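Example record

The entry below shows one chain as it appears in the dataset: sequence first, then structure tokens.
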Amino acid sequence: MGADDPDPSIGPRHEVRIRPFEMAQAPVTNKQYRACVDAGGCSRVEPSGPWFDGDYQPVVNISWEEAKAFSRWAGGRLPTEAEWEYAARGGGHEQKYPWGDEAATCERAVMGDCGYEPTAPVCSKPAGNTRQGLCDMAGNVWEWVQDSYHASYVGAPADGSAWEDAGSVRVIRGSPWYNTAENVRSVNRGAGPPGGRGGLVGFRPARRLR
């Protein structure tokens, strides 16, 4: 996990053991989130505008707590940061992107180099899928995970569990629609306040297998 890189926030490179888990194929869509609202499991969120509100575009303008609430309603939870990166590297392989080491292109990711300003419908770039079939692990939206944000991986747990001892700021993983090709690597990470909202951050649930 991580990389020995000039950016200290994605290092140091270290070994993590991951227990078996499942992850949603794609970021949660507006249509899926509305189903949770209609069922009483989620709070309604403010519309993000017509560029973001298509049924099959990823839901955005979502806080970390709202992402957790949907994940519970769907029978899961937010993934840990280690699980997210394991999935984004095609099952923990030594590769730069979800699809492998080939360069990020407009056929593989929803990103700024390709003229995107809003998000795109999920799974619209199948050439960028992981070998397990996960969509949009690079580009389209950042994604909330369970962990608190730490400035590096020094002291991170080695068992794949969430690291939650550094205050309320939470980790976001992946990359949003405005990032350029050099910024959609699977090791990318960022941070946001749990109540933060905007047109850049979505999420996908996970659950551990028994």
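Notes for this example: The beta strands are 21-23, 142-148, 170-174, 189-192, 201-202, 206-208. The mean pLDDT is 95.
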